[in-house]
Amino acid sequence: MVIGRSGEGAAKLKQNLLRYMKRKDIKVPEDFKIDIVDVQEPESNAMIVAHMIAEALEVPAARIFFKERKPQRGREQYEKFDEQGRSILVQENGLRFVVNLTDYLDTGLFLDHRPTREKVREQAEGKRVLNLFAYTGSFTVYAAAGGASATTTIDLSNTYLEWGQRNMELNGLAGPQHEFVRADVKAWLEQAVDGLYDIVVLDPPTFSNSKRMEDVLYTQRDHPELINGCLRRLAPGGQLYFSTNFRKFQLEPERLNTKNIRDITSATIPKDFRNPKIHYCWLITGG
After folding, report:
1. Is the dihedral of CA 241, 242, 245, 250 positive or negative?
2. Are residues 121 and 248 in the same domain?
3. N or C end of the chain: smaller count of CB under 10 Å?
């Protein structure tokens, strides 16, 4: 096995790999060894690490997909970076979803919100559900599977809305009561209220500067406006799930039009996630 690093970095990676294999009860052959080579190019490193993982886990290298998440600054944001279209069907809690392993940084299904989606399904029977910044509509699928009487799914991307509709169809849940709307969520929330919802899911990106938006979105700056816009659309007894994966996020409760705010982050992090700060989540009600 070859590691594409030199010096202390390679030694540490070697130790971590052996520790991982021991923890997972992966049998290490007697002739197993790790060679250290000096590789400077990130792409070469990625290829070597992919083959290393494939060998350690005994899976074909072609089934290892490498993504690099880089720090974003200013008006930068991730865009589509490939056209391979390597989509597969996966199952989560008895529901089916399309994931794309090649064309985007994210695959179409954020695994850290499995418990949150399950909470929505458990509460959705007979409810009207609003899913904002909906991405590929996984919360909508769970709500519909839980018996929601109606759902409204809003995102600015036609690609993601079509993806969400396909997810609904895969689960036999599509119907006229489940509406998909292409809109700038921030601008949509500023409009006059034309309907109330029992459950609202608000999971905005850390920032967005899409050319189709009326303004740049910064969740740290804009979250009070977004949350208050959702509160105006909550039916009596309704609940808002607000979440963000911005690691430095600070909720500003003094700017919210309610005091009924409960931090439920720990209850929404899957047990198989090592990082307890993969996201933050609050349950908010009116009043």
Report:
1. negative
2. yes
3. C
CATH code (residue 154): 3.40.50.150
Closest CA to 233 of 280, 164, 161, 285: 285
As a whole number of angstroms, the distance between CA 155 and CA 181 comes to 7
Q: Which domain holds residue 7?
A: 2-63
Helix-strand-coil split of the chain, %, nearest 5? 35, 20, 45
- CA pair distance 124, 130, nearest whole angstrom: 11
Q: How many domains, the chain?
A: 2
Looking up tokens 């790790």 gives: 34
Give the pLDDT confidence score for residue 60 in this predicted structure: 82
Task: State the pLDDT at residue 109.
Answer: 93
Give the chain's residues under pLDDT 50: 1-6, 36-39, 74-78, 81
Spatial distance between the Cα atoms of 101 and 105, rounded to a whole number of angstroms: 8
